Fold this protein.
Amino acid sequence: MLMPASLQDWLGPKHLARFVVDCVESLNLTRIEASYAGRGERPYRPKMLIALLFYGYATGVFSSRKLERACFDSVVFRYIAANTSPDHDTIADFRRRALPYLPDIFVQILLIAKELDMLKVGQISLDGTKVKASASKHRSLSYAHAGKIKAKLRREVAQLMKRAEQSESEPEPDLDIPAEIARREARIARIDQARATIAQREAERHAVLKAAHLERLQRRREYLATTGKLPKGPRPKLPPFRVNPKAQVNLTDEDSRIMPTANGFEQGYNAQACVDMNSRLIVSCSVTQATNDKQQIQWALDELLSLPSALGKVEALAADAGYCSAANVQRCEDAGVVPYLSLRRERHNSWLSTQSRKPDGELGPDATGMERMKHRLQTKAGRALYGERKSTVETTFGIVKSANGFRAFMLRGLPKVRGEWTLACAAYDLKMLCNLVAACSNEAKAA
């Protein structure tokens, strides 16, 4: 200890921090660097700050204040920060600044995995998981209840105005009437804003219903023109527009929604991820406000087909029954991807019972996409491929939420939440990639 300490000697050669720093050094961050104006004090290197965030999200340190403290009392974080000490404001501001550029950085990490021969996109698992928002469900307000609170506040303002008139002759030293009125008027304005947000959402929902109604009417007209017969069933009716009194908005994070989870209803988001079955790396991720997964197949196909061609071609897509519909099967086939979507929620079966199953009959030439997929899932190869889904994407969510500790978003608003989920997925990929490189190195030494 008589000589100056070297942080290089305090970390092992295969430490995750070394791998993260090396990968980040190879990233192209010119877009982030160009966003700096070049005025004032010399800024911290963006590559150092992005490596700090990646390692923090890979090890369960998400708060900017905890990251600031770790740069003082943790050898690993001091190594990443090059013995500098960025404060929490700098870290938080950089995280917000880097959010729009994270999708491009995420793809660059996938290309690094390709160069290391650790990734070749082929068979993909898709699933979603509910992640808590940075808001409490008790801060949610329904349209009807907001109206009752507004009426109550209006009555209180009227009472205060009467007391203000009486106080001219009888002063009330313990009550600041103007401040109390201003406080209630501010709450009324906030409630009006919340009710306007709910009404806008209901109008958007009704617009979707109207578009579907017009589509059904168009199909009926086409059927009548083709066959000369009226379609069976009553003529579809469009329900009138009305704001649902139970429709809610959260006062803390308006973009978040009430989500059903295994532990009851929580205020959160539906986080989606596509995981490569071979490497267990996340190749695409997003966040949606929808509690149902059926509408996410189109997003997954668009994202997977937009990946760089160097990563490989998507061949198959496996997902649970929440994604299954005839339209989604057709979307997959139109995109040239073989669908493996579970037809129903199945119970756990023994290995012997699954091996004894046989497909129900043979496929005819006029078989639909759903019939072809049902037959495919009954074959031995189809059962084996779909069986990989649980051990890939669900295990990935377990690592991100349990091992990495990412159970709730730190940021608020859908755009920021999507960026933070991309940050968490990129950190997972770096951690998984480090383990894969280490395992291959050990196998090479053993051979």
Observations:
- The chain is about 50% helix and 10% strand.
- Residues 159 and 181 are 10 Å apart (CA to CA).
